Structures are given as C-alpha cells and as structure tokens.
Amino acid sequence: MITHIQGKLVEKNPTNVVIDCNGVGYLINISLHTFSQIPDKELLKLFTHLQVREDSHTLFGFCTLAEREIFRLLISVSGIGASTARTMFSSLTPKQVRDGIASEDVALIQSVKGIGLKTAQRVIIELKDKVLKIYDIDEVAPSESNTNKDEALSALEVLGFTKKQSERIVDRVLSGQPDANVETLIKEALKNL
Prior knowledge:
DNA polymerase, domain 1, globular, 193 residues, 3 domains, five-stranded mixed beta barrel, Helicase, Ruva Protein, domain 3, 5 strands, alpha+beta, CATH 2.40.50.140
C-alpha cells in the first residue's frame, strides 16, 4: 500500500493533482477540502489511499491523516464508494463529517450530493461507535436538541429559505460560535444566504 507521496507539485486542479516523485508523475484524486489546503509551493506531501480494482488502480490524496482515516471509515460502509466519500469532503470538512456522525445528524450527512436518507442513516449506524471510540468523543446528544438552532431554522423557513440551505449555514455559524443565540444565528445566516 502506498501510504504517502512526497514530491514536486506539477499540476493542481480542484479534483486532482499530479506529483512528480523521482521522475514518475502520480495522478492523485483529491477533494475540494484537500485542494483548499494545498499550498502553492513546489514540494508537496499527501497521505494517500490506494484503491485497487479489477480495471484500475486509483490513488486518493489527503492533507491530513485524520481526513484519510474518516475516508477509510466512510468507504467501509455499504453504498458509499470512494467517489461519494470524496464528494462528502468537497462539501463538508472532515471535522463536520466526524461530528455529524457522532451527533447522529442525518440531515447533515444527507445534505451531500448522492447520499439519500437510508444511506445517511446507514453511515451513522455503522460508524457512530467507531467514531466515538477512535476520536475519544463523549457521546454527543443529537443536534436536534439545540433549541436555538431549531428556532433559527424555523424563522429562516418562514422567511422563505429552504431548510437544507438554512441548516448548512446555521451549522457553519454554530461551528464557529457554539453559544450563539437565535438572533445571532439568524443575522449570520442571512449574511450568507
């Protein structure tokens, strides 16, 4: 298994990079999260996951070991392939994915393109215990218990915004300001909607 690749960054795209390592160019698939973390300098090291299939060998690259670990957990779930897991990291950060699983936030997992309700529930059922154990997280109460969040979402819905869109923005605000009151949540969400 190729665990990491370090070399000269030859090409950088939102979905992949090419790293020249001693004269061999490796095409490595990446998420938008990893793309945003890659510095524009010549020397680059990415942690990798090699997917071997009957018809292809595909490398996936990650800036951090934590992102690779969550990716591997995700692809262990039936119905989640490597491309779906990569898409998940293009719309959510690894921490958001981890916390969403730990807090049983089905709506957050389901907000990723290509993941339906049943798949989101399966991800949470199969990975919650592993995530809590690996990351030593105390069991988190489901996010539905956050009344400030619920009130803010209700208000935004009344204002005509979709629940999915509002929830994503409110979650982002809460990740930066966990103690934000309803008024702050609504104001911040309206700035970003």
